[in-house]
Structures are given as structure tokens and as C-alpha cells.
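Request:
You are asked to prepare a plain-text protein record giving the amino acid sequence and the C-alpha cells, at your earliest convenience.
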Amino acid sequence: MEKHTSELTRTLARSTALLALVLGVAGCATQNANPPAPTTASSPDYNYIVGPGDTLNINVWRNPELSSTVPVRPDGKVSTPLVDELVAQGKTPTEIARDVEKALAKFVRDPVVTVIVTSFVGPYSEQIRVVGEATKPQFLPYKQKMTVMDVMIAVGGLTEFAEGNKATIVRSSEGNKRYSVRLQDLVKRGDISANVEMLPGDILIIPQGWF
């Protein structure tokens, strides 16, 4: 009788330990050790930076023959009438306009140039990248006040295997600091409190659930 009781006690102890282990793993699976991403992150003085793949409308006032719509080449440069090569990558549209004016000043008296970006891609360093269990993982051009909800709409939401509440934002502008974000609550439950702003260069990582 004592032997049977002792074996029963050991069995119960092992079962309790196993249950605690399982619960511990399950608890880890639903939590993200990183701090929550700040709700507000963007800066009001942000200026768009031109990158390869952008399309620029370069208008020279009173000189339509010098005006043109040109793509930014993979090497980050553009070519316009009378300007063979001009670096556009990494500059704002206003900075590019001033550079074009300087180049044209050799041929035109007091040129006045405006530059408008008509197709947006942005430099690689500022693109938002989404990897993991998104329906359509991809990169997106950053836009002022862009939120994680905007990003999820663009990538088509979560896959059925996504562990949305364990998603992580890697913020390159802060030395690759990691923040947690509750995508499951936001996308599946409509919890707007889980919506946060993105910053240029952010990487959104969406892991797969274990079970």
C-alpha cells in the first residue's frame, strides 16, 4: 500500500512539473519580451528623400523645352536637357531643384526650377520592410504619419499561421532597437490602441505561431 502511494505521489509530481513546463512555454509563446512600440513616433519636420525608382517632374519656368519628367536611375542620378548627370538620390526635391538651377545657370539666365515627385519609392534606407507571416511580404515607401495599420492593409493582413501579437518592429533609426506590436489585436480584433506609427527604415517581423 505504501509502495503504491509512493509511486502515485511521484507520478503526480512528474505530471505537475510537466504541466508547469507546458504552461510556461505557452506563456512565452503569447508574450513579446520587447517593450511596446511608441504610439507616436514621426517627426513634424520630416522631408521626403528621393531614391532610385522615383519619378521626378522637373519644371523650368518659362523654358518648357528644358522641362522634363525623368526617372531616378539605379545609380541614383538623373539626366535632363542640358544636364547630363545629376545626383538625386538622398536629396529632397527642393535640394535637387537648386542643383538643377546651378547646372542650368551656364546656359539660362536666372533659371527658376521646381521639382515634384510623381512616383514614390524612396531610398532603401527609408523603405518599410515587412517579412514573415504577412499575406504579401514586401517593401513600402515611407510616408509621413504612416502607421502599422496602413502597413498591414498594404500587405494584405496576416496569414492564418501568424503569431500577430509576437510581431516586432526593428527600428534602424534607433540603432536597430526592437519594439513589440500587437498585430493580432489590431487586425483580428479591431483594437485601435494597438496601432502605432512607423518610422523610415523600420522592419516589421511577423513570426509563425507554434500551435
